[in-house]
From TrEMBL:
Domain DUF5681 stretches: 20-94
Positions of region (Disordered): 1-39
Start-end of Acidic residues biased regions: 1-11
Pfam families reported in the protein's UniProt record: DUF5681 (PF18932)
Biased composition (Polar residues): 22-32
Protein's recorded name: DUF5681 domain-containing protein
Amino acid sequence: MSHENDPDEPYDVGYKKPPKHTQWQKGQSGNPTGKKKKEQSLLVQLKRLSAKEIVVHQNGVAVKMTQGEAMLVAVFNKAMNGDLGSIKFISQILGISDADLSASKAPELSENLLGVLETYADWVGVVETARSELAEKSDHLENEGNDDAAY
């Protein structure tokens, strides 16, 4: 029989032999609170939050999307309303330079576009002719009215 397992046996306390009452009991952890959890980085937290699904109402219709998608929709809507910061953000994400944004591109002239321009020019001519005729009639009527006032 071994005397190590018998609690009534005398026990020599010394180097590498702590007193029995200070030793860990069977089933008791040496680290009861466990290892500390590593703190999540800001990037990991942002990714987790942006992946969370929400319901957004667009034009009266409920649409499911992630919070990241909803954020992009909001930024895009602000850009469409002329918010310069949002426009700059979207252009940076898409890789569009400021020169590309500011350069106005002339439309290519096609036969259809040329026909529309000619029709527009014809209508502008008709409107200008009508205005000048109206101005002449109103001047003529004013002059006739002044002759009556002289008598």
